[in-house]
Each structure stands twice: as structure tokens, then as C-alpha cells.
Queue: 3 jobs
Job 1
Amino acid sequence: MPALHNPFKAALIRGELQLGCWLGLADPYVAEISATAGFDWLLIDGEHAPNDLRSITAQLQVLAAYDSHAAVRAPIGDTRIIKQLLDVGAQTVLIPMVENAEQARQLARDVTYPPDGVRGVGASLARASRFGAIKDYVTTARNEICLLVQVENRAGMAALDEILTVDGIDGVFIGPADLAADMGYLGQSDVPEVQELILSSIRKITAAGKAAGILTLDPDQQRACVEAGATFVATDIDVTAFARSIRHSAQGARDRLKS
């Protein structure tokens, strides 16, 4: 029996647009509610949300029952952390702040078993292999792992051409907030200079045969990125969606009942 199929990776290979949402509330109940919304993928954030390995695992468990594919962003591109995320069942991993091709090559090794990589062989203990029930897991897992690298500063952009030559990288995600800050536009990712770099980078990524992705809440920017070739686009964040809705609800109540 081979490793479980990764429909998100297969869709990216086919060039099909995958719409997603960021999960930062770090709660399996919220993750399950989000899975009923109809997004193609949901990103469990281990970088900027209060997630640890156990909370990530719990969210992977509830999302497994739904059609929305679960991706995980690691807090950092560390071999040990990536090993744990893969073992608890993450098949799509996003690694932040990739600045050069050597980092990208190491990440490709991190998600690959020896002799071609350095992923620790402990599949019999792992949720990923259904605790040993998937007998062919170690020989088939790599085919279903989707490795996405996040380029989000000027150093990464300068090295983008070389990063795109790295075998084993399935996609490149542009981080607009950090990129804008590094370019001197903190909190201003909508300025023309930043936007032009984002769109030209998306075109470069797709021309190299890789999937291009981004998170943006701006509908105009979403359309522009899709038109440039982006195929995995996150359009909302559970934290901001909840904050927006609950504040609107409170304001509506005040307007109706206290005016």
C-alpha cells in the first residue's frame, strides 16, 4: 500500500487554481469549522500563530475527514522540526524565509529519506504511515510530499532564479508583508514597487515550471496574482475573519440598541 495521495500537489502539477485560507487560531474546532467552508486548502500556521506540534497534529486529525487539504507552515526551516511535521502527517509543508538555493536544496533533502535525503526513518511510530499500516510508506512518501518555499525578502528575490533550479521544490510562495518591509515599505505591501516585484516574480516562478503562491486579502491583488499565473492563493485568515465579524456584530448591536 503506497503513501496517501496528496490532491493538492496533484492539482498544482495540473495547473489548477487552489484557493485557501490561513488558520492562525490554533484550535481544532475552528479548523473543522473552516473545513466546511469549501476552501481547497487550509494552512495551519506554525510561524506566527501559537501552534505547537500537538496542536498542529490535532488540526491535521480533524481536517483529514474533509476535502480541504491541510498544509502546515513550519516556524523555521529546521531539519528536526520538518521531520516531526512529516511524521505527524503533514504532506504539504511551507517553509518561511528561504534566501538562497543552498537552503532550498537542504529543505529538499529534509523531506526525503536516505540515501537521497536526511529525513529520519521512524515511520513505524508515525501517524503519516498510519502507525505502520501503510507498508510501503517509506518508499512512496516522497512522491506525495509537496514542498513549498517562502521567498519574502530582497535576498530571496535576488536568489530566486537559482532557487527555481532546485529539484524537489514544488512551489514558491511570495510573502508580501515581509517583502514590503524589507524593501522599506513596512505595512505598505500595496505600493507599486512591491506589487510589480510580486507579479514579475510570480511570472518567473511559473515560467520555471513551479507553482506560485501568495496570501493576500485584497481582491484586486488576488485577481492580479491569478492573472500572473499564481495557482495557490490564500484569500483570508481565520483570525482576521473572526475579528472582522465579531467587531461588526458588536458595532451593529451598539448602533441598534444604544443609539
Note: The mean pLDDT is 97.
Job 2
Amino acid sequence: MYIFLISFLNLILLLTPYVYHRPQASFLTRGAQTLSIVGNRAGSMAMGNVAVLFLFAARNSPLLYITDWSYGTYLLLHRWLGYWAIIQTIIHSFMLMAYYMSKDMYKAEFARNYWSWGIVATVCVCAMLPFSHLWVRQKFYEFFLLTHIALSLLFLIGYYYHIWFLYTYNWGYEIWMFIAGAIWGLDRVIRVIRMALQGSRTAIVAAMKDVDGDYIRIDIQGTELKGGVAYLCFPTLGWHFWETHPFSVAFNPGSIPEGPSTETHAPATTSEEPTPDQEKSESTLNAPPAANSTSTFASHNTTTFIARARTGVTKQLLARVTKENGSARIRVLIDGPYHHSGQVSSQLSPCSSILYIAGGVGITACLPYLKKNRDKSAKLLWSNRKSGLLTELQPVLAALPSNLLVETSIGGRFDLDAVLSKELAGSVKTGNGILGVVVCGPPGMADDVRRKLSQVSTRNVMSRPYVLLDEAFSW
């Protein structure tokens, strides 16, 4: 609805109303006047959208605290404001070009400085669209990040000189650039201050066993973050020393009892046709921790992150670890933590029971909430492709509150239709209360949970109401 409102307002305010007074001296024809005033309005609206989209993309935006919306929601709205800014910039450029061509003045205007800088701004804002595509963000995140920042700055510079060479400071159009630039700059300053307050830390990065090189563990000494998302900067890892990358806080080793655990909340579940990995899942649950697991780095004032090594910085970290025989000490700066999902505790407070559904490394976003779950009936369904991640986190699961039921699956998926049908059975009137559903995993899994919840609740109109929280880690 909010996206619809943004789009509706942008469309209506661009199209209407326009007032024509004929005859008049500035425009000889009504068509020429239409080209000019519509083009100029589109340019003004584009910059209004740019100022807001910079605010929506800021990690430290006050709107995050005022509305309690998730950062993922604001990034979605940021993209839609970007679409409208691009559309309006193109309309502005082409309608003004058509206007000057109709007056046979295009060559003269093209030679002026303001026109050249306008071309720079238009090309930069249009280039952002293909360079920000989801496929590019997923496969080449560092490339996307670098081009996005560079094109954004070039766009603001191009817009500023476009206005300055045409109007200097007579009409106030440059104020839009100052607002957008101030938001961007202030957010960066706050990030630097937050990193300075945390100070420089040492990260022990280790490769995990029995995961086929898919996962790494990052233990940062000297700081203890309780939850949320922290942006980590590894200035000595490569030439792009300024980049920060988001990681979900998994747990604090110092809060976990040392030594191997002898019991868990529940045995791992297996699918109807277990794979070899599934067959050994029960034994891995009760096995002693691996050599590089929790007990090795169990110390107070330490924060642990678990990450899947794919591309970019995680791939570089895995390469450094492999080069140094399984473990490496790397300098790290921390920006955070941020609670990008809003006040989850208050959103789940009306719920009488909570169902956590995690896929792979998505368990890291659920663990901080699971540790606090002491007064509600709760169940965790965690599916993994490999047994190594389960072995690594077995002591963490064993230390969770006793009212939590843990079910795991190795190499298979849970029957979400059956699980959700069972959990949604009953109603508030029968004393079952509201069901909270927290999901964190690959985008396809989150979409599947959302779809199944809708289908199950539609089939049974008397089912329990529910609250769905998607802890997305793919923006």
C-alpha cells in the first residue's frame, strides 16, 4: 500500500494540474509550453525523491526508530523512490531536449556547461538501474557497492553544476542537492564515530569442519554484542579497505558452559529418505565439539559470527584462513550493532507461542531471540545442507532455555504445510492465543513460509491468528 501511495502521488502530481494562460510572451505555442513546464516539474520532483531515498537508505535514519519498520522495508521503498527518480530525470531531460529542438536552439544549449553537467547527472542515474539489479547485488556485491556510491556522488555533483551554471543561487534548486548530500555525509560520519567508539579489534577467523568449505566462523575479541546486525570492516584484507559488510550476531561464547554437552532439547529429525548426512545427524548432536568449535574460543567479552563463504569478502576471508592452515587473526572495525528488524521483542510480546524456522546460516539471526525465550512455548525448526554447522552450534543449542523444542534436519526440508497446519490449529477463543512465526533463511524459503501460512490460514478460517517476522538476510 505504501508503494502504491508513493507511485500514485508521483504520477498524479506529475500530470496535474497545469495552468495555461494564452496568449503570453514566453511560449509561442501551447505545445512548447507543455514541453517546458512538464519537463521542469519532472526535474524538481526527481530531486525531491532523491532527497527522500537518501534518507531511506541511511543506516542511522531516525525514521527507523520513529516507525519501528525494518531496514529491509526502507530499502525496498528506497528502490521504488529510485525508480521514480530515474523516470522523472529521463522525462526532464528528453522533454527539455524536445523543447529546445522545437525552437531550433538545441545546438546552442548543448554547448553550454549546464547542459553538459545535466547529461552527466542523467547518465549516472540511469546507469544505477542495471548496476543495482538483484543479480548484480548477489553475485558482485562489492562491484555494486562501489558503482552505487560513485554514481550517486557523480549524480549529485552533476546536478549541482547543472543548476549552478544555469541559475547560480537565484532559484533555490540547489537546496535539494544540499539536503541529499547532508543526509549521505551525516550517515557516514555517524558510522565512523560508531566504529571509533568500538575501537580496533582482533578477529579470529576459522574454517568450519564438515561443511565442504561453505562456512566460516568469526570470533571478535574485546567486544560483546548481544544481537542484531554488525557491519564489519577488514581494512587489511584487501585494497577496498573502506567497505563494511553486514553479519548477524550469532552468540557470545562466554555465556555458554565450557566442555562438551551431553544432552539436547530434541533429536534431529530426518526426512523419509535420509541421505548419509541425515543418518548421522543424531550422532553429531551429542558428539564432542569440533577442534575449532565453541569451547576453543569460549571467553568473555567475545562476539561470534557465522557466515557462508560465497563471494566477495567472505570468499577472501576463507582464502586467508586456508592459506594460514585453518585459522587467521585479522584486524577488524565494527559498525553496530543495528536492530534492522525493529523491536522484535515488542512485536512478539502478544504471542502465546513462537515458531522459529531457520535455514542454514539463518540460525544466527534467530539465536539472540531464542536465548531470551523463557516465558513462552517455542519450537525451532532448523534445516541444514551439511552436518558441520549443526556440530559447531550444538553447545549453543544445548544452552538454550529448556522450554524450547529443537528439531533439525540435515540434507532435507521440513513439511511446512503439515507443520504450519498443526501450529495454526485452534483459535484465540479456545485459549491457543496468537502464533508468532520468525523465519530466517534463503529468500525462497522465506517466500515459501509466507505462502504456506497464507494457504493454511485461508483453508481454515477459524485458525489461530499469527504474526510473521521475516529476518531477511538478502536485500
Note: The chain has a mean pLDDT of 84.
Job 3
Amino acid sequence: MRVLITGGAGFVGSHLADACLLRGDEVYVLDDLSTGSIDNIEYLKRHPYFHYTIGRVQNASVTAELVDRVDMVYHLAAEVGVRRVIDSPISTIENNVQATEVVFGAAAKKGKRVLFTSTSEVYGLSTDLPYREEGNIVMGAASKGRWSYACSKALDEFLALAYYNERQLPVTVVRLFNTVGPRQTGHYGMVVPSLVQQAMTGKPMTVYGDGSQSRCFGFVKDVVRALVALMERPEAAGEIYNIGASTEISILDLAKRVKEIAKSTSPIVLVPYADAYDAGYQDMPRRIPDTTKLRSLVGFAPATDIDEIIDSVMKSFLARQERSAQRTPISLRTPVRVA
């Protein structure tokens, strides 16, 4: 198959490109590198079935041309990270909604299959756990900037299902829960790579609030396997699926595991949300997916535990540091603690 991955130079997108190429697919990537990195796809440039375009999905002519070339589209391009969402709410809303509209419009004209990646953030303040796809969305106040991301992705979901019902676009929506693994960075508030970097460089390991908030961390390769499996099932069109792990861990316990695995001497420091973000910042105490629907259709089951995930992120961090050191003059290099 020929596939287009928007946001294909990003963390999840680059792993998806790997998986598709291994299947024998011809892969086209469109990414503006606002949060993705050319380093994530550098080694793929030599592959005869890999093509990439640096540009914005909102450029309708570029996107339409790429959609015309392929059989299916994985639409992953979006703003990511709590820090970025809070600092840039306008671009969060505009980029998420406008880019998705362009992709759906181009795909609908040609009847191309689309998989759209949404987020567990759309469940908002709901306490009806575990989260089920048909459950109610309970959004926070409009005055709280962090909910702009959730609202923009929820609007994208409504748009996806509208295109499915009104224009027969074969589109599937997936809600990703805390996906982590190699190539993910802590630049935009991603907790696992942030803790790993702090632990391995001897810096204080920052945990926001009291650390009791818990999440279920899914390994990126497990998530990508589910994305590909859904694209193979025509009956998934017009449906929403949760994708994530089911094992909870508190952020404080996560920090302790990272510290232990890294054999780090870094102290774990609790930081009030108001100091990290803004006054009145809202966070969910728990976020747990119900993946029964996904498992029933494609037999999905997470295969990677939290210790394996942490180890993979550590190895990725060391590899990134090594690449950076090779590009840096010797006189400017600083030592990195290796466990």
C-alpha cells in the first residue's frame, strides 16, 4: 500500500513510518518540524519506498497532491504537550482544526481511507472510569487554557464522524492514552522523557502536585501495531477506539522507578502546579482506558511493561546525547552521567 503520514517526523509518526516500511508499504511523510524532528526520519531517507515533504498540512494544494498519490492517510499532525498548549493556545486551536479539515476534505474527494489520532484529553474532567468510547465528555471551563487542546481534538472527532456520515469518508478515530518510548523528548512536558533526562544528568526530578495523579503508559510500538491493525479493518470506519495500556502507576511512583532503574542520585522534588503552569491549573487524578472495543476487533493487548518502557527511553536519551556530542566541538562538550 501507499500511505501518507502527516506528522510523520514526530515521535509516534516516525515509529509508524518504520512499521509501514517493514510491511512493504510505500510511505509519504508530511511534517513542518514544529514539534517533529528530521533526526527521527534521517535514517529512512535512504529507503527506496520512503518520501518526505517539509511543509504544513494546512497548505491545501500540497496535502491534496500527497493524498492523491496514496491509498490511505494516517493523520497524526497536531500540537502536542501541555506546556506548548498553555503557551500557544491560538496555534493549538488553529493548527489542530484547520489541518484536520484540509486532510478530511482532500481525502473525501478521492474516497481515501483515513485514520485520525485524537487523545484521551477529550474525556476532560469525567470521573467515569475506565473511559469508554461512548462515555460522556466533561470539558473544563473555557477560562482554563489547557482545555483548548481537548476541545480542538473533540471538534476534530465531530468533524470526522460528520464526514463519515455525510460524505461517506471511511475514517476511523483513535484516542491515544499517554504513549511513550524512544524518540520522545521532554521539551513539551512529556513526563517520562523529562524524568529520565533529569535522572541521568543528576538534576532534581520534578513531580507536579503531590504526585498521586496516575496514568497508564503505553509503549509506542504497541500503539503503532494497533494503528496499523485498525487500518486493515474496513468495519472500523465511522468508529472511535481507545488505544493505551491498562496498568496504572502514580507519577511519584513512576519517578521512583526511573530513579531506581537509572541508578540515579537525583532528588525527587514536588513542584506545585501553580509554579509549573499557572494558578488554577486542572489535572485529572486518574486516566484509564477501556480497550475492550479495540481488543474485540483486532485482538490488541499491550505487550510492554513500564520498566521496559523506561529502559527504552533511557537508551534513546543516551543515543541522542551521543549524536549531539559527535556534532559538538570537544571544547564545548559536557559530561553526561551514564548509569
Note: The first helix runs from residue 11 to 22.
